Amino acid sequence: MKQISKNSWAEPFKIKMVELLKMTTPAQRKKALKEAGLNTFLLKSEDVYIDLLTDSGTSAMSDQQWAGMMLGDEAYAGSSNYYHLEDVVKEVYGYKYLIPTHQGRGAEHILSQILIKKGDIIPGNMYFTTTRLHQELAGGRFEDIIIKEAHDSANEFPFKGNVDLNKLETLIKKHGAQKIPYVCIATSVNMAGGQPISIKNLKELRTLTKKYGIRIIHDMTRVAENAYFIQQLEKGYSKKSIKQIVKEICSLTDGATMSAKKDALVNIGGFMATNEWDVFEEARNMVVVYEGLHTYGGLAGRDMEAMAIGIKESVNDNHIRARVGQVIYLGEQMMKYGVPIVKPIGGHGIFVDAKKMLPHIPQHEYPAQTLAAELYLDSGVRTMERGVVSAGRKPNGENYFPKLELVRFTIPRRVYTQAHMDVIAESAARVFERRKKIKGLKMIYEPKYLRFFQARFEQL
Q: What does the pLDDT read at residue 322?
């Protein structure tokens, strides 16, 4: 199997401004965590030293993006920044029609309401929390069609985001193509550990869906990171640029939802894109109801300008090599300490296998949530749970119990240094050393939707 290059890399930028961080004591962290109900989402940012909760909206913008914000055209209708963003989306991604939204879930909502009807089946390469909820609220049901390797944290298959084509065709034959409005394909697959899909698999999927007249909708939040793994690991792509590979990935799909808060390096923003006029026309009507006029979609002109510039920066080869390189460095440091992580290392963060690290804690006692709390107590590093709490409940009220019970160390882009990565790895190592003494949790408050954001816990 081809390996990613081991040549040293350095950040393709220099630091112009710094934000001072608060250093907390163990007593301060214990108090803060108790007030947060042992949920890292409920911690105050000021009480966090290194924040790895998410890479969504937490990246550092470039001087060019900040300069672009001064060019914000804040006209209610017809902002020049919208047309610049539209041009960039066509150039970099290739989609014909653009609907801006305040962030990715705004795009998911509009798309789901347009394409899904009650009783529909939406196959995808592993669920994502907000995506699945929007599909369910529209009357549909998500079906996982990712390859079996994706559910095994130790399996080192390089493209664990691939679709099991036999599983998909079985679903089509069982329910009928008319019951499947689209197949949802994420690049990369967050819940599997930031794992990519290969161009080969995507082409085979395109052939199958064309046979049955089914759309492919692209959840393209981290498409540039996916392209990097294709460039490094897939035959025939080592000489192609990230920009070329991203364009090819998009060309194999019919539309997309995008949270620009990840790859596109902005603090807020997203869009829905499509190649179908009828879908665009309906989305253009709906965005006015839920987000804002179709030429701003809930965003200021300056935000659209920063997004347009960020999209171009995101497909720069030097940028993406350093971005993924930092994640790989952290993963390799953790493995040196024996910390069990999802392999191969993904694009946007390190995912620690809480089942393997805390095998004495059953899944109904929330081992990943427990581990995230312990990591914060140890060092002030904030991570997040990606297991049974995030999976939520089935429509019948029963808990989903996913095979993967993970803690996500999500690395913001262009924010932290290599020394920060060492601090994070050392904290994980210390928690790993005392893992047998750690006790599980019980949930004492659960909200109706997306419980991982607001649930509260107590230690057993």
A: 95
